[in-house]
Design a protein that fits this description.
Length: 164
């Protein structure tokens, strides 16, 4: 009986969070960048031009409930910045929803550089272009449950939108 009550409470909490959603709008600028590319349009990230892109992703390697919770806590896109020194992937979630976010590379766990971006908690990682095209495994603590979870995201690079 106790397990049933806990399960029902968890499902109701997830449903409430999913209904509220992140409540944030994307922050794509108007106009063109220094290369004459139009903000809000799709462009290849692997070009020589630098830029900031919003890239949608799919959640993998977790349960249906895990996907629902992650979708409720996190933006439906990541930010990929192409600079002259390389690529930075920034994962965006509701403030206080996740902590101790790491990217998992084999046996190595690399802690995110934490900050804030567009009203979200931002977790940034230096990545290679090749890594952007693969499943990226993340591990974090979900604050509501105080539980460590692991899942992966697959970026839709073909749908990258120039945002800055």
């Amino acid at each position: 009986m106790k397990k049933t009550i806990v399960l029902i409470a968890t499902v109701l909490a997830v449903a409430a969070i999913a209904l509220v959603g992140c409540g944030q709008d994307r922050k794509v600028r108007d106009g063109e960048d220094i290369y004459g590319r139009t903000f809000g349009e799709k462009y290849a990230i692997d070009s020589e031009e630098t830029g900031i892109y919003e890239v949608p992703y799919e959640i993998d390697d977790t349960s249906v409930m895990g996907k629902t919770m992650i979708s409720a806590y996190c933006a439906d896109y990541t930010v990929v910045e192409r600079s002259e020194s390389g690529y930075t992937l920034t994962y965006l979630c509701k403030k206080g929803a996740l902590r101790d976010v790491v990217i998992v590379r084999g046996d190595e766990r690399i802690k995110a550089e934490s900050g804030e971006r567009d009203g979200y908690a931002a977790f940034a990682f230096d990545v290679s272009y090749e890594e952007l095209g693969e499943k990226i495994t993340l591990e974090c603590v979900v604050a509501l449950m105080n539980r460590t979870v692991s899942y992966s995201v697959s970026l839709s690079l073909q749908d990258a939108v120039l945002a800055g």
